[in-house]
Each structure stands twice: as C-alpha cells, then as structure tokens.
Amino acid sequence: MSVARFWRETPRRYNLGGSKCTTCGTVYFPPRSVCPECTSHRQSIEKMVPFQLSGDGEVISYTIVHDAAEGFEMQVPYVVALVQTVEGPILTGQVVNVEPDGVRIGLKVRATFRKLREEGKAGVIHYGYKFAPAEESGGRRPAGRTGTVPATEAPARDRAPA
Amino acid sequence: MEAGIVSYGAYVPRYRITPEEIGRVWGTDGEGMGQGLNVHRKSVPAPDEDTITISTEALRTALVRGAIDPQQIGALYVGSESHPYAVKPTATVVAQAVGATPNLTAADFEFACKAGTAAIQTCLGLVGAGMIRYGVAIGTDTSQGAPGDALEYSASAGGAAFVVGRERVICRVLRTLSYTTDTPDFWRREGQKYPSHGGRFTGEPAYFRHVSECARRTMEAAGTSPKDYRHVVFHQPNGKFPQRVGKQLGFSDEQMRYGLVTPYIGNTYSGAALIGLANVLDHAGPGERILVVGYGSGAGSDAFDLETTDELGRFDGSYGRPVQEYLDQGVEISYAVYAKFRGKIHMGEA
C-alpha cells in the first residue's frame, strides 16, 4: 500500500473515525457523506458529522486463520472477527491478547492500538486498530470517554438521536 | 497553582519468559541467574507491539482516567531507546493516535533508561511557565539483549504515560534534581541491533554513584531523610540494584515494596521507574510522600520529590489495568516462541 493511501486512512485506522447522520442518528464506519437510511437521501446532505467510535463491542462471528496473509506469518494461528460495536457499525478486525480457543461469539472486546504491517525492513510501518478481550484491557469505560477524542466531538451514545 | 501529575497509565505486553527457560537454551544456570538478578520473569512484546503501540495504550488509559481532552495537550514527549524509526518521531504517531494533533509540540527523547523522567522534567517546565495546559511524558521500551548475553535475562517491554498539568493535581512535584556525568557504562552505536555494556563497570561508578548522589542531593535540598518518605522508586535494571542502593541510602523493604516491579516483568528500561511510580500511585492514598530516582546509562539520574494530594482520593483509576495485574498475570512462552516474536530467527530474504 502506498504511503499516501495509508496516510489518508489514518483517522479511521488510528482513531476509529466514522460519521453520523444528524437527521436519523445512524453511525457509519468507514464514514459516509450521505445517509442511505434516511428516506430521502437529500435530507442527510451536509448533515453528516464526524463521529468517533469508542472501540467497545462484541464478537458476532470469527474465524481462525492458519494460512497467514503476508506480514502475519509470525502470528499464526490468529483470530479475525466481526465485531458489533456499541454505536452500531460492524467492524472486521484481528483479535489479539487471546488464544484462538478463548474466542467465542458474544465475547466483549475493546479496540487496541497495534502494528498492522511493515513495508519491509526499510519501509514505513502501518499502525491501526485491532481488538482485545475487554477483560484483558481492564476496567469499565466511563461514559463518553474514549481516550482519543476531542471533547467537542465526543458523543456519542449520550446524545439523543435527532 | 504549580505543575504536577494529573493522570497516569501503564501498559505491559502480555507474554512472559523465565530466566530458567533462557538458561536452558544457552546451557547456563538460568535459575541461578534469575535469583542473582532478582528477576523471576520478564515481559515479551507480541510481534505487533512496539514502543509506539505501548505508549499509545498507556496514554489512552491516562487520558480516560483523568477525563482529559486530548486537544488540550500542548506537548507530548516519548522517551525510549527503542523507537521503531531512526528518523520519524514516535511522538507524532502517538499524538495522532490519541487525537492530540495538530496544536502541540512533540518530540522523542533519548537518554538510555531515563528519557521518560527527562520528559517529565520538560513538561513541568512548560506547564509551570504557563506555556501549555497539559504536557505528556511517556517512558517506554521494547529492549533487547544480545542472545546469550547477561542482558537477555532482564531486557523486557513496557511503558507508562504521565500527564502533567496544574488543575486537579493528584501528585505534587515538590522538587526535581538531576545528576549527570560522562560515564560510558552502556551504549549502542548507530546501526547496531544490540547494545554493549561495560560489565561490572555498570555498577559502582555508574548506577550506584549516580542514583545515590542524586537521591542524597535531593534529600539534602529538601531537608528530608529516608524516614520522611512513604514510598521510594529507583530505576531498576534488575531486581537487585535498587534493593542494594535503597539499603545503602537507608530505605526499608516496605518503602520499596510497590516501586519495585522489575522482578515480575523484567527491566522495561525507560518504562522501569515510571511503571514503578504508577504502581505506587495505584496503591497510595492522599498525603503520601514519594521519592523517585531514575537512571540512564551514559550517565545521569533524575530525582523527584513527590507528594500525593487529596485529589488522588477522587481520582478514578478504574479504567485500564492496575500495574499489579501486569505483575501477577501473563502468558509464559518458550524461548523458541520468544525468538520468533523478537525477530531473532533468520527468515531469509523476503
């Protein structure tokens, strides 16, 4: 992946930056500029705002990878899961800090910051979100605090849907 | 109000290896080595963890605990001797990953194992001068010893982040003092994968001289003696050196109890004294005096005369894991898995 392409995606990969429709309240990740949920898509034009996911969610399905993708050879066998986030979007991500037989549907997870891959020994290093069991991450998250978001954008579930 | 610590967080990777397991591979008495160093286990980072990811995890925990708006961070410094890039700051990635960009200054610090404490001093200056609202100082390492070298029994991974500010200070900084000389006890030349050291030379003229001089001068300036402190934290390249310097200075085992973490996770270099301080703050109540003395080879010591405030009683430290869990838990791995995780196996040309 080119340096520029990855760089453009850092808000998503680093901070789970999505978007939210202020008309119907639906949250999107990756971000959308128009809301397909609103009966007339025009209602949502210019009403989509940046929205940061908290990173909390639960596993709704998963697979154990034995034949590694390039760059993941050192981590075999590893788990890739579909995570239902508390804000709504379903994300695909690796689940770390757990043995494959410790993963189950319904497992509470939290986003963690990890190295995704390296462009060889001399190239750039890509970072982004993976997931880890919430119990391995410790403590319950106080409402509205993500540790990543400017308070002005923090939101979230506390806001009543419009 | 003066600058002090307003929040903190620590992170230690999940995997552990024992000195016995390392000794088994190299045909040495690993158990004896572990006892001699007072290191029972050391932490090992996963293949997808490095100084940037560990620093980010520690800082996210600190920001959530302190309910701190990342956009109010005016300076972010990461102290380490294992920055993933030789050129490209660790601090920029960490700042972006916590949402602190773009209105801040950021830089990487290097001073062997005391780069993190040097970063705290810098933040105290900036916050104290009113130039910034919050300063972040992080000490993290994913250090390696050459295979079979004595260092391999202790060099581990972990880090801690401290947020310095003037509002809702949980730990006041009464004084900070440093002691610095040119002492070549430990070094790594550009392009070298593993560090070199002066063997026994790392002891008396290096660690012991700097730590004890710095501690003595700090107490002299403050008009205090060891009995005035509830807790003491020393840099801890192994579990033995801090115990010995503590005894020489007149501190008891009880005073060192929470600040000594290396026996359970190994030497986290720039993270060592700071994870020790995080563990002390996890256990401390308001009004407790703490002496912290960091050490970095090359060489220098930074001391901090600290006192917890009533605000610590209101501090919500429930988010993230307490240091004690990192000391007690972990998944033990074999030397083969450790070698794979740490990139010690030659995989041929990619």
Give the helix/strand layout.
The complex is a heterodimer of chains A (162) and B (350).
Chain A: H1 3-8, H2 10-15, E1 17-21, E2 27-28, E3 48-52, E4 56-65, E5 78-85, E6 90-95, E7 108-118, E8 125-133, H3 134-137
Antiparallel strand pairs in A: 1-2, 1-3, 4-5, 4-7, 5-6, 7-8
Chain B: E1 4-11, E2 15-17, H1 19-26, H2 30-37, E3 42-44, H3 51-65, E4 73-79, H4 90-97, E5 105-109, H5 115-128, E6 134-142, E7 157-165, E8 171-183, E9 186-187, E10 196-197, H6 203-222, E11 231-234, H7 240-249, H8 253-256, H9 262-265, H10 272-283, E12 289-296, E13 298-308, H11 311-314, H12 323-328, E14 331-332, H13 335-341
Parallel strand pairs in B: 2-14, 4-5, 4-6, 11-12
Antiparallel strand pairs in B: 1-7, 1-8, 2-3, 6-7, 8-13, 9-10, 12-13
Helix pairs in contact in B: 1-2, 3-4, 6-7
The CATH topology of the domain at 54-137 in chain A turns out to be: OB fold (Dihydrolipoamide Acetyltransferase, E2P)
How large is the count of helical segments of chain B? 13
Number of helices of chain A: 3
Distance between the termini of chain A: 39 Å
Q: Which percent band covers the strand fraction of chain B?
A: 15-25%
The CATH topology assignment of the largest domain in chain B is Peroxisomal Thiolase, Chain A, domain 1
Largest sheet of chain B: 9 strands, mixed
Strand order of the largest sheet of chain A: 6-5-4-7-8
What does the radius of gyration of chain B come to? 19 Å
Oligomer state equals heterodimer
Q: Write the CATH architecture name of the domain at 54-137 in chain A.
A: Beta Barrel
Termini separation of chain B (Å)? 56 Å
Counted beta strands of chain A: 8
Topology of chain B as a string of helices (H) and strands (E): EEHHEHEHEHEEEEEHEHHHHEEHHEH
- Report the strand count of chain B: 14
Class from secondary-structure proportions of chain A: mainly beta
CATH architecture of the largest domain in chain B: 3-Layer(aba) Sandwich
Mean pLDDT of chain A: 87
Contiguous low-pLDDT stretches of chain B (5 residues minimum) are none
